[in-house]
Amino acid sequence: MSDQAAIGLIGLGTMGANLALNIAEAGHRIAVHNRSPDKTRAFHEQAGALRDRIVPTETLEDLVDALASPRTILMMVPAGAPVADQIDALVPLLAEGDILIDGGNSDWTDSRDRATALGDRGIGFLGLGVSGGAEGARHGPSLMAGGHEAAWAAAETVLTSIAARFGDVPCAAYFGDGGAGHYVKTVHNGIEYADMQMIAEIYGLMRDGQGRTAADISAVFDRWNGAALESYLVEIAAEVAAVIDPATGRPILDVIADRAGQKGTGRWTVMDAQRRAAPLPAVEAAVTARVLSGEAALRAEGEHLFPESDALPPLTDAELEGALIAGKILAYSQGFTLLSVARGEEGWIMPLDTVARTWRAGCIIRSAMLDDMATALEEGTCARPLAFAPTFAERLRAHVPALRRVVAAAVAAGLPVPALSAALQHFDQLRQSRGTANMIQALRDRFGAHGFERTDRPGEGGQHGPWVATDGSA
Ligand code: 6PG
What we know:
By secondary structure, the chain is an alpha/beta fold. It contains 19 helices and ten strands. The protein has helices spanning 14-25, 37-45, 60-65, 81-90, 108-120, 133-139, 149-162, 180-209, 214-225, 232-242, 265-275, 281-293, 296-305, 317-346, 352-358, 368-378, 390-413, 418-430, 437-448, and strands at 7-10, 30-33, 54-57, 72-75, 99-102, 124-131, 142-147, 165-166, 169-170, 172-174. An eight-stranded mixed β-sheet has the order 3-2-1-4-5-6-7-10, with helices on both faces. It has a two-stranded antiparallel sheet with strand order 8-9. The relative contact order is 0.09. It binds 6-phosphogluconic acid.
């Protein structure tokens, strides 16, 4: 029936409400539902010119009845138990062939399990990573889908129509079965953590090492946003640094407490990466820094106990910019390596160049560099780190010296730059053909007879050293 809605949406919080308006604006009739009917009514009343395309519903039964068959319902409720409860409440009302889409920041393993469980009941499921915050949800998010391919085929038209576009290309893609979509979103968030941490570290060097004002720092970020670092996060770093707090007349950055929140996606990325032996030290450093940011009393005590610090050696803005460019490339390289490993292990389609393309617009980490990354990944560097792709290797040769100078200067002055230095350390390990793990192997064999491989007998494991054990035996 023509007056039935093409899609339903549950959860009219910031993201849900903005997505609903976006869907209506794209020309689709949408039925909406919120746990509290007042919120649903208020949303409908405030929808302005889009009101006619929005069907407010008071109960889940009303919502389901308002939808054209097969029904598609986008759930925008908090990750974890609320999604599970929502699915439990909906399933008895659905028929075979209907589709549920989870658009929250769910753990990809939950989405994997939900795809299986719902599939067994004949219900389609998509775990949909949605990035871009409120603005993105309203005017074009980046959408990362995973789950049942048939569900994607059915929902693709609506989802693609509301996604951000980079030129003509919509930033929406299907990456594979199970939790593939939420996996890509989780890694996106891990990279987001590293990106933000590196920006904060450079800000810290300018603030604490160079004594610069927020206004000056804002101007620097603004300049960088016009060149190689052009990106949403650098753009809004310039913006927030320029804002004055109306209550005190001081820069808003100077009145915001230095404690970062986190909802878990960064941590999940790191845990999954370690599990797959594809670590992302830059993201790990960023997650750790957020944790330590919450330890204000401990940090104050530490500063009191160990107050000594030296002046920051001179650094030019070009060096700071170069450090951020190199750090960013290395962090993204780590992220794409993890995606490549996960893709192989999980059997996901997940072309890495498509991932980069999907991140070029709409999402929080969107940047000019992602377009070049998409091209480099398309050229088949998937099995090797993105950092080794010719165009990025060239950029690293140009900018790693600056990263080295910036990290060295920060270390000399005792100013923490954990993500930048983790990126550099990982890079240096990756370019050391003769490492130091021979010492680790000798120690393991000495204390536990764990065995090692000799360089003069490659491929033969289980060799032992002529150690003299502490009990006197050889
Ligand atoms: C996005 C963001 C978003 C995330 C926030 C906060 O892509 O739009 O990643 O999904 O929820 O960035 O995340 P944290 O609270 O973990 O910083």
